[in-house]
Write a structure and sequence with these properties.
heterodimer, A: about 180 residues, Alpha-Beta Plaits, five-stranded antiparallel β-sheet, elongated, B: about 575 residues, alpha/beta, Rossmann fold, six-stranded parallel β-sheet, 22 helices, about 35% helix, about 20% strand
């Protein structure tokens, strides 16, 4: 059964790694619904958050292929129940229409949004939440001449995770003493 | 970081010497115990070739005729020597010509370090002369790749490259070095081998509960069947593997990459798996109660239709690469780890057993196969020779002690089926990728990887024409390889499929050949061509006894087929004997 899975990947910060990970999906003709890269809780280690719609069997195999990459430290996959996730959305609307026709304060309260920029010609609202929440505000604003809309990739925290510090220590512990060769 | 210096009784020198990036590359190769490089120069790699001029006494460079030839030679070298093959190519077309070999090495787990030249860093992305984005082109076909634009990175990256290529499940690594980094001077403080990368775990941790479960499952089995692949060879676990099957009384069949890990004559060696494998191993895959896969990856050419593959059996899968477990066939017991370590752990827990009645089933199947297929192949009633009888005669003369390098197609299947082996690392072929044109250059590398051994390249009339230019490499370096062309005047395997599945609509399989003996003569290589059976033994003996390279063309039956065969889309027990 296909369902939404969130893949979390801890990696070294390496040029070309995004491509190396992305082609694991494209080779299997799997569409990436959302992709985010950012720093992680550990300095110098990057964190990818990727959302796909697939069966558990497929996602498990994909995650093993990802973990096999030399510069990948660890990859996890989770269902939506197992994570806390958010997306951020920005909405650009004409200020005059909005001011005239919408009770802005109530709107902001209802949708947990805030105004990031208010200018004479346009206003930018921002809200953070899950897909239904950002969509709800989008539906409300659409009739008032939405100029631009953009939504970020998903970022997610794994509920059960105790972070990456311990795991990294484990990976680094096995570091043996190297031999130097003078030529 | 503690350091221990080896070679030249110096302590870790505090002072550094100034060398170029190019020299740093060559010093890395020497430190990694590389003796042979296969390569082809060009503009963007000229500084490295210039440095090589002064290292000629310590590094042997073989000038190939095409970069694809270079990388296949590197593969052949790696496969017979067990070491990492090294290949040099220039930027642009030089680098893109490596792609087929990289893909081949990737799918067949062959350790390679390829060094490509690249345009000056400031020209990257400008469509400069002979610039190509080789890092992104080769990402899907390399275990790891990296572009160097600052020479200070060279020693550490080279160390990483060799460590990654050769450790765990081996594979190809490509290092792309911008020309400015090749000429840049650096303060060189010696070479430190890489033995650990924190993000890379070459060997998964062995879980003892699975080792125990595997042993218990085998002890309780009535009809256990071992199938093994190249993992046994790459792990250097041939002896451990033999102990394992002998103690458990376990019949064992091989994939074509696992071939030669167990000598052909071993009583428990029951033959070849897969599409053109032996009758017994295919049929009995669907009758065994425990299937023990060792260092193999259940390729579709081995399994046939998956939903009809060993459905009755419990599966134990030993592999060093965790991503192979459950990839194609679900494992009941996954034994993650290097089989050099896991096999003896299982063996220690095995009950010593003989399973004569089960093993005899394989013999009975072999008798059926001999009657239906092999007898006619070895003693044909036709006037024209068969590929099988040529290989059989070759066995007689080499006593199974030659390295057999094959290309791709009918001759490959026949050679794998009938060649006899007494030593490991003796069957070199392009398995996963099925690269026609592999054999001739791979044989060159195979010879450099095993100078004391006889190397015979068995090639079809299609494949030889794909990389025939490497006769030039053989000529220039007097590489003592024996080239045995089995000429059926067809692209035989495709023709066989067209006959069986496309109603003999022979679409573009009719291939003409040049006069190979004359071509060889042009390259100052001796040769002969025969089409009569009575000349075969003598011609093969002349080839083998010749001091130096030799080309022998043998004309064989035009429309001979390779059987048995598991047709595509069928289960292994639907194997056809005719």
């Amino acid at each position: 059964m296909r369902q939404e899975f969130t893949i979390t990947i801890y990696t070294e910060n390496q040029v070309g790694l995004l491509n190396r990970i992305a082609i694991i999906f494209s080779r299997r003709k799997i569409n990436i619904e959302s992709l985010n890269t950012s720093p992680s809780e550990v300095e110098g280690i990057h964190r990818f958050t990727i959302v796909i719609n697939e069966s558990e069997d497929v996602v498990r195999k994909i995650v093993r292929q990802i973990e096999k990459q030399v510069d990948v430290l660890k990859a996890y996959f989770n269902t939506n129940d197992e994570i806390i996730w958010q997306e951020l959305a920005l909405y650009k609307v004409p200020t005059d229409t909005i001011a005239e026709k919408v009770k802005v304060e109530r709107l902001l309260r209802t949708y947990g949004a805030r105004a990031v920029v208010i200018r004479k010609d346009y206003t930018i609202f921002e809200t953070t939440g899950q897909r239904e929440e950002t969509d709800a505000l989008l539906n409300v604003l659409a009739p008032f001449g939405l100029i631009e809309f953009v939504r970020s990739a998903r970022v997610a925290i794994i509920k059960e995770s105790s972070g990456f510090y311990e795991k990294l220590k484990e990976f680094e512990e096995s570091e043996p003493v190297p031999k130097q060769i003078i030529l | 970081m503690q350091t221990e210096t080896i070679k030249e009784e110096k302590t870790a020198i505090e002072e550094t010497i100034e060398i170029s990036g190019s020299e740093a590359v060559l010093k890395a190769l020497i430190a990694e115990d590389v003796s042979t490089i296969f390569g082809y120069p060009g503009g963007a790699i000229m500084p490295i070739y210039d440095a090589l001029y002064d290292y000629n006494d310590r590094l042997e460079h073989i000038l190939v005729r095409h970069e694809q030839g270079g990388i296949h030679a590197g593969q052949g070298y790696a496969r017979t020597s067990g070491k990492t093959g090294v290949v040099f190519a220039t930027s642009g077309p030089g680098a893109t010509n490596l792609v087929t070999g990289l893909a081949d090495a990737m799918i067949d787990s062959t350790p390679l370090v390829c060094i490509t030249g690249q345009v000056f860093a400031h020209l990257l992305g400008t469509d400069a002369f002979q610039e190509t984005d080789i890092i992104n082109i080769t990402t899907p076909v390399t275990k790891w790749n990296y572009q160097i634009t600052d020479a200070n990175e060279i020693p550490a990256i080279m160390a990483k490259a060799f460590y990654i290529a050769g450790s765990g499940r081996p594979g190809p690594v490509l290092i792309d070095i911008a020309k400015n980094a090749q000429v840049q001077k650096i303060n060189y403080a010696g070479y430190t081998k890489c033995t650990h990368i924190r993000s890379y775990r070459p060997k998964p941790i062995i879980r003892e509960e699975y080792v125990k479960a595997a042993a218990e499952m085998i002890n309780n089995a009535e009809r256990p069947f071992v199938i093994f692949g190249q993992g046994v060879i790459l792990g250097g676990a041939e002896a451990e593997f033999k102990n394992f099957i002998e103690k458990g009384g376990l019949p064992a069949a091989w994939t074509i990459l696992g071939l030669s890990a167990l000598e052909t004559s071993h009583p428990l060696n029951v033959g070849m798996l897969g599409m053109h494998g032996n009758y017994g191993p295919n049929m009995l895959t669907n009758e065994c109660d425990v299937l023990i896969a060792v260092g193999m990856r259940f390729d579709d050419r081995v399994t046939g239709r998956l939903d009809r593959y060993a459905k009755q059996a419990k599966v134990i899968h030993l592999d060093i690469d965790p991503s192979e477990i459950d990839k194609n066939v679900k494992a009941d017991v996954p034994v993650w780890g290097d089989c050099k370590e896991t096999i003896p752990m299982i063996t220690a827990l095995l009950d010593a057993k003989q399973r004569d009645s089960w093993t005899n089933r394989f013999k009975e199947c072999m008798d059926q196969e001999i009657e239906a297929v092999i007898h006619e192949e070895m003693h044909p009633s036709t006037e024209q020779m068969t590929m099988g009888e040529v290989i059989d005669q070759l066995n007689e003369l080499t006593k199974g002690d030659a390295v057999i390098v094959t290309d791709v197609g009918q001759h490959q299947m026949v050679a794998c089926r009938y060649a006899k082996f007494v030593k490991s690392k003796s069957n070199i072929t392009s398995g996963g990728l099925g690269t026609m044109g592999f054999a001739l250059p791979a044989a060159i590398g195979a010879k450099y990887g095993a100078m004391d051994r006889t190397v015979v390249a068995v090639i079809g009339d299609g494949g030889i024409q794909m990389t025939i230019q490497e006769l030039g490499t053989i000529m220039q370096n007097n590489v003592n390889v024996k080239i045995l062309i089995l000429n059926n005047r067809f692209l035989g395997m495709v023709r066989q499929w067209q006959q069986l599945f496309n109603e003999k609509r022979y679409s573009f399989v009719n291939i003409e050949s040049p006069d190979y003996v004359t071509v060889a003569k042009g390259y100052r290589i001796e040769g002969n061509s025969i089409s009569n059976r009575e000349d075969l033994s003598k011609a093969l003996a002349t080839m083998l006894d010749h001091n130096g390279p030799y080309l022998l063309e043998v004309f064989v039956g035009k429309e001979n087929n390779v059987f048995p065969m598991v047709p595509q889309g069928c289960g292994v027990s639907e194997i056809r004997l005719k």
